[in-house]
From TrEMBL:
It comes from Salipiger thiooxidans. The chain crosses the membrane at residues 64-86, 394-418. GO terms for cellular component: plasma membrane. Residues 1-54 are annotated as: Disordered. The keyword rRNA processing does not apply. Signal peptide: none annotated. This is Capsular polysaccharide transport system permease protein. Residues 16-28 have a biased composition (Polar residues). It comes from the Bacteria. The keyword Secreted does not apply.
Length: 422
């Protein structure tokens, strides 16, 4: 080996300045040092599956169908509604009115003394009746006869069938349409009724409201007349019955007096008692005279026989008069006569008291009927509109768009949920 080759070999075996062995030295060291065996790699657990890359979105047939359904279900109805509302629908004017049922009560003398006068009060029960009456078929028929509602609400039917009445509408159809053009607001606690009538001209709307008020006033007056007549009829019937009973009681008492020829049994008894007293006195005097005559006269004196006859006659008369006070003929028996007379007298007095009470009730009912009166008080007279408020086009349009959109969304969701289940 030459010196040059040896130097080169040593040069390769020397470490470099960083302290690391040269490649040749590292190779020799690796050959001499045994390497540890590497552990077998553990299989990696697969994480979430990697989806294949999404393809480019493409327009499919179902997307076109969904867009077409949106046009048919939302856009087309909305455009149709807009066209009808702003080109075909006729303007409607509103007339507002407010009224209530009042009951006027004029105070009586007793009320004024006691300070219980009630000048005016509302009647909620009458307001309830009136509220139902305004919505009834009877009122619709009466207003139709006065204003011809079919002609009034059907003249625009060819251009605006949605908000107009059919010319050949029945009374039931007219009542249903009446609920749309006449709107009522009622507060049961206060009895106030607010009404709004619609028509195609301001004058017609005001005329409808005025006619409703007129017919309602007529109905309230009829109710007042019926109530007044009922009150008077009951009082009148009670008075007539009491008067009939009093007449019968008086007639019975008069017939009994005529039959017994006694006007007042108490006075007749007093007279009878006076007669008995007189007879008793006469009998006493005759007995005294008889005793004196018998002591002084000779036996067989005819005056003694006459005295005895007078005494016997007086005693017989006393017995007859006493028999009238009991145990005799019922026709002349004073206890029976007095008992029957008292019964008839009590019946007559009871009939007189009943008649007096019935007459007082009749006068009271008549006074109440005259001083109580129901009437219809309007706190808002039928107004005359200056501009059309109906139909509410923006509101109706918004509802059409909202409802059609909601309906379309629900149907679309149902379709996709059923599709995803397959």
């Amino acid at each position: 080996m030459t010196a040059q080759s040896l130097g080169t070999h040593l040069k390769h075996d020397q470490p470099d300045s960083s302290g690391a062995a040269t490649p040749a030295a590292s190779q020799d060291a690796s050959k001499d040092t045994p390497r540890p065996k590497a552990a077998a790699p553990k299989p990696a657990r697969p994480s979430s599956p990697i989806a294949p890359p999404a393809g480019r979105a493409r327009l499919k047939r179902r997307h076109l169908a969904l867009a077409l359904s949106f046009v048919l279900a939302v856009v087309l109805p909305s455009l149709t509604a807009a066209w009808y509302l702003w080109t075909q629908a006729q303007d409607q004017y509103a007339s507002h009115m407010g009224f209530t049922v009042r009951r006027e009560e004029a105070p009586s003398a007793v009320d004024l003394i006691g300070g219980l006068a009630s000048l005016s009060s509302s009647s909620s029960s009458d307001s309830d009746v009136l509220y139902e009456f305004i919505q009834s078929q009877e009122l619709v028929k009466q207003v139709d006869e006065a204003l011809d509602l079919r002609a009034l609400y059907s003249r625009h039917h060819d251009d605006d069938p949605m908000f107009s009445l059919a010319p050949d509408a029945s009374i039931e159809d007219l009542v249903n349409y009446w609920q749309r053009v006449v709107q009522i607001s009622y507060a049961p606690g206060t009895g106030l009724i607010e009404l709004k009538s619609l028509a195609f001209t301001p004058e017609e709307a005001q005329a409808v409201a005025t006619e409703i008020f007129r017919q309602s006033t007529r109905m309230i007056n009829a109710l007042s007349a019926i109530a007044r007549e009922d009150t008077m009829r009951y009082a009148r019937e009670e008075l007539a019955l009491a008067q009939q009973q009093l007449t019968e009681a008086r007639q019975a008492l008069t017939a009994y007096r005529t039959q017994n020829q006694i006007v007042d049994p108490s006075a007749d008894i007093q007279i009878q008692m006076g007669l008995l007293t007189t007879l008793q006195q006469q009998l006493g005097n005759e007995l005294i005279d008889y005793d004196l005559l018998r002591d002084n006269a000779q036996p067989g004196d005819p005056r003694i026989a006459q005295a005895e006859q007078r005494i016997a006659a007086i005693r017989s008369r006393i017995e007859q008069e006493r028999s009238k006070f009991g145990g005799g003929d019922p026709a002349t028996d004073y206890p029976t006569i007095v008992a029957e007379f008292e019964r008839l007298t009590v019946e007559r007095q009871f009939a007189e008291q009943k008649y007096t009470g019935a007459l007082s009730n009749f006068d009271t009912a008549q006074a109440e009927a005259q001083r109580q009166s129901r009437y219809l008080a309007a706190f808002v007279q039928p107004t005359l509109a200056e501009r059309a408020e109906y139909p509410r086009r923006a509101l109706i349009m918004g509802l059409v768009v909202l409802l059609s959109t909601v309906a379309w969304s629900i149907l679309a969701l149902i379709y996709y949920s059923l599709r995803d289940r397959k």
